[in-house]
Design a protein that fits this description.
Strand order of the largest sheet of chain B: 2-1-3-4
Shape of chain A: elongated
Largest sheet of chain A: 5 strands, mixed
Helix content of chain B: 40-55%
Number of strands of chain A: 9
Strand order of the largest sheet of chain A: 3-2-1-4-5
Radius of gyration of chain A: 20 Å
Largest interface: A-B, 29 and 25 residues
Order of helices and strands of chain B: HEHEHHHEHEHHHHHEHEHHHHEHHEH
Number of helices of chain B: 19
CATH superfamily of the largest domain in chain A: ATPase, nucleotide binding domain
Largest sheet of chain B: 4 strands, parallel
CATH class of the largest domain in chain A: Alpha Beta
Oligomer: heterodimer
Number of strands of chain B: 8
CATH architecture of the largest domain in chain A: 2-Layer Sandwich
Order of helices and strands of chain A: EEEHEEHEEEHHHHEHH
Strand content of chain A: 15-25%
Number of helices of chain A: 8
């Protein structure tokens, strides 16, 4: 049996998927500053979950912002390509992907699992997971609860600014003026969804549309985004692992392509060691 | 890591002489006083080059100075200086960098501030602005600078060409635009005569214009060698080799430079030497000025087998015969015709393709001629005139031509705070994967 691993080091979370002809293990751990060097530990845990050793892995693909710094990966592929690949296996009808990550948001147009076109947000945090994280913190609502809370909104509060700093100030003053938290969060979701939609609509958007990344776990944001596109958006069962799954699938494709010609792809001849962010 | 082995980018050796050109142009302004010459703060691609050269007026190129500051990553102090007097960062950073420098020089009594790149540029005796469709700061930049150099006379001409109208016939009105442009150039000559106290030598001007025409032809002959597969020269190089055409037009040195460059490219082709080995993908630099502080990004592309055999930017000329210029003995009228036809000679092709525009038609022509697999656009936030329509150009290209991979890069020409290397390289990597997927789809 051949085993393939995908390692997706995002700005906030590190995701690992190990698969054979099915998913053997998937694990999500924080990337954050003190954990950055610990991608190998997430991999170790995933291997434990799959009851495999590191030497059992046939091919490893790293993706995400930290992909270049994973010493044990055999190949690096961008998260754009890996998301497209992962989505194709999970939701084959999808032609447009909106990935809402910790520090960036992407729109990806796909055809048969291949990237046709893509767009990414500029260097502003508005429209990313980090923006929602800061707003949730300033309102005292856990990040994983803001989606549910927003569903109780009686109306969508109008938020004039999508600048993270100014929006946070606006939240606090509106809260002091008595605006219910649910309305405010619904307003924030609406503002973020408007920004994301204007970005993604630069692609010639075709349905089905799926949302991935941490933002896809926010039901309020997904609903707001759906209203911008006039349709229900699809969300894979675990939207955070799409990139890692795609990376593992890309690894399988690479290996099998070589195998079909009676060859083996070159390997990093690696050891499971710390990622080299700080070296 | 099992990274793919990177091919080595190969730059032309002729381009190595470009810093001498740029530095020479800047130091010429500093030497002008002792040589009894007048210095004019001037702007590129505005039809005034030959007038200045024929009258021994030394051009002080503000755009070049700001570009050098950016390339040396030394523009911030000038940007901040301009900002301190309420010039917004969202204004043209070529202008604000240069205005900041001018402000400092005025505070020092006309002496260039210490540490200015390559000694800086001299205080001008005049400023030649040119309001035109190309760039709106050319109206305001000299006027804003005059605020600090109130004794320096400003002359702003207006050079227009017929605006694009898919339902109109620009040929019916172009003579009006040419007459207007020629009249403006005559006024420029009068202004320069007044400042220099010398009369224009029209025979010398005619010879200078003739040399410019020859340089235009030679430039295109040279650049068209890049159609070769593998291409012998990249846009990363072209952002340097444009200097003689852009800043030294009408000089023998500019012509001679392209003689050398052409010979080198012919030799590279004969030797089978390309920019990247192997050359995996060919892409067009479809619009936008580069981030001068990040020219290394071209090598990043090259290192991954992606080459730019052609660019729209700084290809500010065309084979003269393709412009079909009417014969005239008046060199100023010739410049005016050349100016108008340069901008309008894609109009007829654009009309034949419903929904197209001249700018998009030009991109399509280059994609076809240079066999490009994709297009890269650079959107520089502070340059409205050239960059405002980039998204629309990219969308129109895909709509009227074909759905080729497109990368929109974001940054600025001078302001490094707009730039994030990791993010830029991530986008480039994703674009290259998209190129690969696109090529695989086509088989």
């Amino acid at each position: 049996m051949e085993y393939y691993a995908g390692v997706d080091i995002g700005s906030t979370m590190t995701k690992v998927v190990i698969m054979s002809d099915r998913i053997e293990a998937s694990l999500i751990g924080p990337t954050g500053p003190e954990h950055r060097k610990l991608a190998n530990r997430v991999m170790e845990e995933a291997l434990g979950q799959a009851r495999l050793s590191f030497d059992d892995l046939t091919y490893i693909v790293a993706t995400g912002y930290g992909r270049i710094n994973v010493p044990f990966a055999d190949r690096q592929i961008t998260e754009i390509t890996c998301h497209a690949k992962g989505l194709q296996s999970l939701l084959p009808s999808v032609k447009t992907v909106i990935d809402i990550g910790g520090q960036d948001t992407k729109g990806i147009k796909i055809l048969n699992g291949k990237v046709m076109n893509f767009v990414m947000n500029d260097k502003c945090a508005a429209g990313t997971g980090r923006f929602l994280e800061i707003i949730a913190d300033s309102l005292g609502v856990p990040l994983n609860k803001i989606g549910e809370v927003s569903l109780a909104a009686e109306k969508i509060a109008s938020i004039s600014s999508t600048c993270t700093v100014f929006a946070e100030q606006e939240m606090i003053s509106r809260l002091a003026a008595g605006e219910p938290i649910a309305n405010l969060i619904a307003g924030i979701h609406d503002a973020v969804a408007t920004r994301i939609a204007s970005l993604v609509k630069k692609l010639n958007v075709e349905p089905d549309i799926a949302v991935t990344g941490g933002g896809a776990k926010n039901i309020g944001l997904v609903k707001a985004l759906g209203s911008k596109f006039g349709r229900e958006l699809l969300v894979p069962p675990e939207p955070l692992i799409t990139g890692a799954l795609g990376a593992a699938l890309m690894g399988r494709d690479i290996y099998e392509k070589y195998a079909a010609e009676g060859q083996k792809p070159s390997r990093s001849r690696k050891k499971l060691e710390e990622a080299t962010f700080f070296k | 890591m099992a990274e793919e082995k990177k091919g080595r980018a190969v730059a032309t050796s002729t381009a190595a002489s470009i810093p001498k050109f740029v530095r020479g142009n800047m130091s010429a302004t500093l030497k002008a006083k002792e040589e009894g010459k007048k210095v004019a703060a001037a702007f590129i691609a505005d039809g005034q080059d030959e007038i200045m050269r024929a009258m021994d007026i030394v051009p002080a190129w503000g755009e070049s100075f700001s570009g050098v500051c950016a390339a040396k990553r030394d523009a911030e102090k000038y940007l901040q200086k301009a900002e301190s007097d309420n010039f917004s960062r969202s204004l043209c950073t070529y202008a604000t960098c240069n205005i900041g420098f001018d402000m400092m020089r005025e505070e020092l009594g006309g002496v260039a501030p210490e540490g200015a790149p390559w000694g800086g540029m001299a205080r001008p005796d005049m400023m030649l602005g040119n309001g035109q469709l190309l760039c709106d700061p050319r109206f305001k930049w000299p006027q804003a600078t005059q605020h600090y150099q109130q004794d320096v006379p400003v002359f702003v001409t207006n050079m227009y060409y017929p605006p694009w109208d898919p339902n109109g016939d620009h040929h019916e009105v172009e003579a009006i635009y040419v007459k207007y442009a020629a009249d403006e150039l005559r006024e420029t000559v009068k202004f320069c005569e007044k400042i220099t106290g010398k009369k224009m030598d029209y025979d010398r001007l005619a010879k200078t214009v003739e040399l410019s025409d020859k340089t235009w032809d030679l430039f295109i002959d040279t650049y068209e060698l890049r159609k070769n597969i593998p291409t012998p020269m990249d846009t990363g190089d072209a952002m340097n080799t444009m200097v003689p055409l852009t800043f030294n037009l009408g000089t023998q040195e500019a012509y001679d430079f392209y003689v050398s460059l052409k010979a080198e490219l012919e030799q590279k082709i004969a030797d089978g030497v390309g920019v990247a080995n192997p050359e995996k993908f060919r892409v067009i630099w479809a619009a936008g000025l580069p981030s001068w502080f990040a020219l290394g990004d071209f090598q990043y592309f090259n290192g991954k087998g992606v080459v730019f055999p052609v660019e729209v930017t700084y290809r500010g000329c065309e084979k003269i015969e393709r412009l079909n210029l009417p014969k005239t003995n008046d060199p100023l009228e010739h410049i005016a015709w050349r100016w108008v036809r340069y901008w309008t000679h894609w109009y007829d092709a654009a009309k034949k393709r419903p929904g197209s525009t001249p700018k998009v038609e030009r991109i399509i022509e280059y994609i076809e001629d240079y066999k490009c697999d994709g297009a890269v656009f650079h959107s520089a936030f502070s340059c409205r005139s050239w960059h405002a329509g980039i998204m629309q150009q990219a969308a129109t290209l895909k709509k009227v031509y074909k759905d080729i991979p497109v990368l929109i890069m974001e940054g600025d020409i001078v302001d490094i705070s707009s730039y994030n290397e990791a993010d830029t390289h991530n986008r480039i990597d994703a674009f290259i994967e998209t190129l690969a997927a696109s090529k695989a789809r086509k088989g």
